[in-house]
Amino acid sequence: MERRKFLNMRKAFVFLLGLILIFPSFGLSDNSKDDPFVIKVKPAKLTPLKKEIFSFLEVNLPEFSKLNDQIWSFAEVALEEYKSSEALASYLEKKGFKVERGIAGMPTAFVAIYGSGEPVIGILAEYDALPGLSQAAVSYKKPVELGAPGHGCGHNVFGAASVAATSALKEVMEKHNLRGTLKLFGCPAEETVVGKVFMAREGLFNGLACCIQWHPSSENEVSLASNNALNQFEVEFFGKTAHAAGDPWDGRSALDAVELADVGLNFLREHLKPTARIHYVILNGGRAPNVVPDYAQAWYYVRDLDRESVEKDYERVLKIIEAAAEMTETTYKINFLSGVHEVLANRTGSEVVYSNFLLAGPPLFNAEEQSFAKEIQRNLGIEQKGLKTEIEPFRLPEKSWGSGSTDVAEVSWLTPTTSLGVACTPIGAPGHNWAEAACAGTSIAHKALLTAAKVMAASGIDFFTSPEIIQKMRQEWTEKRKGREYKSPLPPELKPPLKSQKK
Ligand SMILES: [Zn+2]
């Protein structure tokens, strides 16, 4: 027993030593000696340029908060963000950016460009709301309009903060004649995993030295974790109606096909790797029990750790759907909706972002904001811990699966891309929830916006002024891709699912 303990200790010591040898520039932080996954990063220095960035953002915060609140009240869902995208695009246009609207076949996608030459650095903005999550800026569940959309993922804050960071960077670049091109990408339809996938297929993210983005969160963190790759599609089955009691033998049920496909998929789960995730809803299962349904429709998600695995799972899923049609003597049609890769995290770039997070500090919530968050937690029936006030340690990712998917993944395959999470929602509150929508319309969101913009703009300064950082980021990115080139998961003929194209 004692000897085994010793061997285990020896193993742990060798592992730690290995980590220190692999990452010689970082020792282990004082409070994390027993946590080999924590990476010590020093705060970035407050250079004169960053000082200017911070004060520009503080002075102009009321303008950016106004943008935040406008988009929050528009609460427009995927590919219908007309007012939201216009608010952001016209703001940047007025500030001297060249704006191109309606890109990649989506009226609500845009790019705002400033400067010229290398390096070209991108910042992502999102602004779509979620259906059914309408919510007033109060600490209890209260829709502004029952059943209407709401910002339950805080994308209004996302968009406003990214535009703030971009404006601050432009201000400093102009004043100090910094070389390079700044591009803000107005990315619609993140919630349906659509916008950036079509923008990527169009080549809009090509030629970027790197890309910066963030997301509202309950934590203050820079994460190296990935997200699941995904394929999503609809299946329509076509059969023949008949009287369900009088002459059912003359009918061919499209609903039977959906049910048999789903039974088959549920049996398939046992023979997929445990990392696979399949989920579905039936969108149309017929109109009346006494009519054999000649039409049925279902919507499927297939997720897995990486693109390769999703493609393999997807092939097997298609076989089952085909077999279901065969069994029921129906025909079927697959409508491929969208697909994404897994996110490629970039450690070099993330360290730069983290060091600027330590410099800017977490959002400073006041007592009123903390009690608003605690009131929400009380109403949700969860522990009243308020809002996060510290920055999480910077950690190597542990193996995990079962996460959602994001179209930011596509950008991360086209250029080194950094992520950042800033506290904007109460600790322990569920995602895509009224609580998040409520906070996104208050001063809690304005503070998160300020922090996110400071960290992104300060990181942007480092990327614009340190070619050696970009070089290291790109080297890491090239190694991670292992020779794999980006291939769009979308069929070449597929168009964005605009309302006018929907059946
Ligand atoms: Zn989101």
How would you characterize this protein structure?
The protein is globular. The strands form 4 sheets. It has a 6-stranded mixed beta sheet with strand order 2-3-5-4-6-13, with helices on both faces. Strands 9-10-8-11 form a 4-stranded antiparallel beta sheet. The chain has a two-stranded antiparallel ribbon with strand order 1-12. It is of the alpha/beta class and 503 residues long. Helix 2 (48-59) packs across helix 5, helix 3 (61-74) runs antiparallel to helix 4 and helix 4 (82-94) packs parallel to helix 5 (155-175). A hairpin with an 8-residue loop joins strand 2 and strand 3 (110-116). The protein has helices at residues 2-22, 48-59, 61-74, 82-94, 155-175, 195-201, 254-268, 307-328, 347-360, 367-380, 408-414, 434-439, 443-465, 467-481; strands spanning 38-39, 98-101, 110-116, 120-126, 180-187, 210-212, 215-217, 229-238, 277-284, 295-304, 331-340, 394-395, 417-418, 421-423. The longest helix is centred in the C-terminal third of the chain and has 23 residues, at 443-465. The protein contains 14 helices and 14 strands. The chain binds zinc ion. Residues 153, 155, 190, 215 line the site of zinc ion (ZN).
